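Workshop exercise sheet. Pairs work together: one partner reads the sequence aloud, the other fills in the structure field after running the prediction. Swap roles for the next sheet.
Pair: D.N. / O.F.
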Amino acid sequence: MGTDPKRKLWESYRKKIASAQAESHKRKTECWLPTKYEILGVELIPLTLEKFLLLDAIQSPVLRGSDAGGQDIINFLWICSKQFVEDAEELEKFREVMQEKRANAEVFQEIDEYLTDSFFLSTSKGDDSDEGENFIASIIDLLASQYSWRLNEIMQLPLTQIFQLCGSISKRLTLQAGGTYVHFDPITDEIKAEYLKKVRELN
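Structure field:
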């Protein structure tokens, strides 16, 4: 007697889902611990709301996922670096040091991983649209109203922490109002969606 195809499919995905849940838990935990990133010898700090806005203000191609040249990479690394200050002379010194370094495929991969980690729990990265503007305003409004934090405190928070806090607030307020909270977990949700698609194909 043959094995039930659906059961066989579940067995193949059960471990994948468990692995995804473990990876998600690991990422959520690590964002509360000191995290060090280094790209082209430059030490970066986790992407904060302030640094996100600075990159958005210069319309950084790196942030937007469009073609980026050498100067774009340098500007991105400068803003995200631990040593960043809003000082034109310091920026020029940084550019001089970085001019001899070249971005290759590995560097672009490292930047992509840095941004992916930063937006891990986000449902939107924001852009030039009203949605992008509301994305920022909603975050600030939510954290300020719930925790009585000042604007500067919110601006210095890593995005990874912000998204987790917003999720926790949303869950608490939804349950207090008698609603049903829908848990969002991008890594696990993607595997589950893939599994459900294959189940429908068997029907």
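Discussion prompt: Residues 5-30 form the longest helix (26 residues). What would you look at next?
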